[in-house]
Design brief:
The complex is a heterodimer. Chain A has eleven helices and 14 strands. Chain A is of the alpha/beta class. In chain B, helix 10 packs across helix 11. The chains are: A alpha/beta, B mainly alpha. At the A-B interface, helix 2 and helix 3 of A face helix 1, helix 6 and helix 13 of B.
């Protein structure tokens, strides 16, 4: 549905996007992640035709954005980082204007607008001036605006920003509901949001793609390097020595002291071996009881930080 | 009429700005027409001639927000990512300002109508002056729209358009002093000279084409400015 090839964008001397390529299949929700200034918004602005690219191509539904901008724009609903709202208009007036601007069918306008307002929860606020709405409600108006004209593709730049927790849950549900017959690209910095909504993740950093996979596989890849968190009662040096002598242990370090003679350790195994049983028996033999043993699964935060900092996965800090 | 034009016109009349400008213009006209009527002097063309210069102040205030505000508030994204092309958006914006200008002129038409009713004659000078005045207004509105595309600061936009319009207004007075080629360019560019021809009741094709192509050129340049900015900044 969306195909981005070798996209490059320069702002004068600054390279904002450096050779990005990815595809989004029809009906897919793609999470677009990256730290501030990574080029997320720039990429989105190029896909929607707001900014021209320096080089590279963007195709939406088979139409190129540079040669057929109007065909592409007809198919895209865009919610930019800052919702483009006319504050002096009421919600209905604004959405009605957007509907005309997007050349949505006039005969169905009234029912379309009331459906959309119902969907994003604006019906009770339809006669209010946008200027008087809270940030969360303005964000909803922005989302409503993107939905007008029933576009096949939705590009949402941080759609849940500024919403309260209840609204966030609602909007996520709305977005998931929309996905059935639409292709969605969603940028965010809220990582759990990605695992909740998105089927695939593209992480970009410094204008380049740093990782691209499903959220599950990304975190599996990382937790393959088994890491165990242990709490063991016993003399610190003896524990370290005993653990270190177990085969396949890559390294073990003491992290914190909790009580007298009780310490927390982090242990990493070689080649992804499961040595939990061996540890149990060895420690029992040495009369140093294990109070806690927990494999540490990589969260999306770990992946994000490791990918973005380019520091390598082994250096992931303790949780 | 396009969605953009309709929205902008509605915006002018929902905010106080259109009413304030109409009020100011009518006040000025009343001040000028009062002595003319008292003296039993029925030629309205001179009045129109005198109040024309106030358009240099009224139009920049009318047009200053038309594009600058979209840029400042980020609504430009909405316009440029909609399936409406940029030329259509700019023309829509221009038509909105021009429509408000026509409303102002239309309401002020009450005064010459009074003269016509009581004097019983309508002169070609009066018709010509009004046609010239409307063409001049179109050209000025296009200058205002152009200046509004240059900046996101409305005050700066208004000041730049005021300066451009004022230079166009006084160009002929200094043309002779400057002399040479520059002088003839200034004379050619002088809207006052061209407007003067209309007030004599002469509808010269050259002048009509001048005003229309000047307006078109300004709108074309507005489109280029916005296009260029899309390339340069983010």
């Amino acid at each position: 549905m969306i195909e981005i090839k070798n996209l490059v964008k320069h702002y004068g001397q600054v390279v904002a996007v450096n050779d990005i390529s990815f595809k989004v299949k029809e009906g897919e929700i793609l999470g677009f992640l990256g730290p501030n200034g990574a080029g997320k918004s720039t990429t989105m602005n190029i896909i929607t035709g707001y900014l021209p690219s320096t080089s590279g191509t963007v195709e939406v539904d088979g139409y190129d954005i540079t040669t057929h901008p109007e065909e592409v724009k007809k198919r895209i609903g865009y919610l930019p980082e800052q919702p483009p709202l006319y504050k002096e208009m009421t919600v209905t007036e604004y959405l009605s204007f957007v509907s005309d601007l997007k050349k949505a069918p006039k005969n169905k306008k009234k029912s379309e607008l009331s459906d959309i307002m119902e969907l994003v929860g604006l019906t009770d606020h339809r006669k209010r001036l946008i200027d008087n709405l809270s940030k969360g409600y303005r964000q909803r108006v922005g989302l409503a605006q993107a939905l007008i004209g029933n576009p096949k593709v939705l590009i949402l730049d941080e759609p849940t920003v500024g919403l309260d927790p209840k609204q966030i849950v609602e909007i996520r549900r709305v977005i998931k509901g929309l996905a059935s017959d639409r292709t969605i690209i969603l940028s965010t910095h809220i990582l759990p949001e990605v695992s909740m909504i998105c089927e695939r993740v593209v992480i970009i950093n410094k204008g380049q793609i740093a990782a691209e996979d499903t959220p599950d596989r990304l975190s599996n890849n990382l937790s393959k390097i088994s890491k165990l968190n242990l709490t063991i009662k016993g003399d610190k040096d003896k524990v370290l020595k005993t653990l270190g002598n177990i085969p396949n242990v890559k390294y073990v370090t003491m992290t914190t002291k909790t009580e007298d003679l009780v310490y927390k350790y982090v242990l990493e195994t070689k080649n992804n071996n499961d040595i939990r049983e061996e540890i149990f028996f060895k420690m029992a033999e040495s009369k140093m009881p294990i109070l806690e043993l927990k494999p540490s699964a990589a969260t999306l935060e770990d992946i994000f930080i490791s990918v973005v900092s380019n520091a390598g996965i082994t250096q992931t800090e303790e949780e | 009429m396009s969605a953009v034009a309709r929205k902008e016109i509605a915006g002018y009349f929902k905010s106080p700005i259109a009413y304030v400008l109409i009020g100011v213009y009518i006040l000025i006209m009343s001040i000028y027409i009062h002595p003319a009527l008292k003296a039993g002097y029925g030629d309205f063309v001179d009045v129109l001639d005198d109040v024309g210069i106030f358009m240099i102040f009224i139009i920049p205030i009318l047009t200053m927000r038309i594009l600058a505000e979209d840029k400042k508030n980020g609504t430009e994204v909405l316009l440029l990512t909609s399936p409406t092309s940029l030329p259509k958006i700019v023309i829509g914006k221009f038509l909105a300002t021009f429509t408000v200008f026509l409303v102002i002129v239309g309401i002020s038409f009450v005064y010459p109508m009074v003269v016509v009713i009581f004097e019983g004659v309508i002169t070609t000078q009066l018709v010509g002056a009004y046609i010239g005045f409307i063409l001049l207004g179109a050209a000025f509105c296009s200058v205002g729209v152009f200046c509004s595309s240059l900046t996101e600061n409305q005050i700066i936009s208004a000041i730049i358009s005021l300066v451009i319009m004022f230079s166009m207004w006084i160009a002929d007075q200094y043309a002779a002093t400057v002399g040479g080629m520059m002088g003839s360019i200034m004379e050619w560019m002088s809207v006052l000279t061209r407007y003067g021809v209309f007030t004599q009741g002469l509808l010269s094709l050259e002048n009509i084409i001048f005003f229309l192509s000047f307006t078109a050129l300004m709108l074309y340049m507005t489109i280029r400015v916005i296009e260029r900015r899309r390339w340069v900044q983010g």
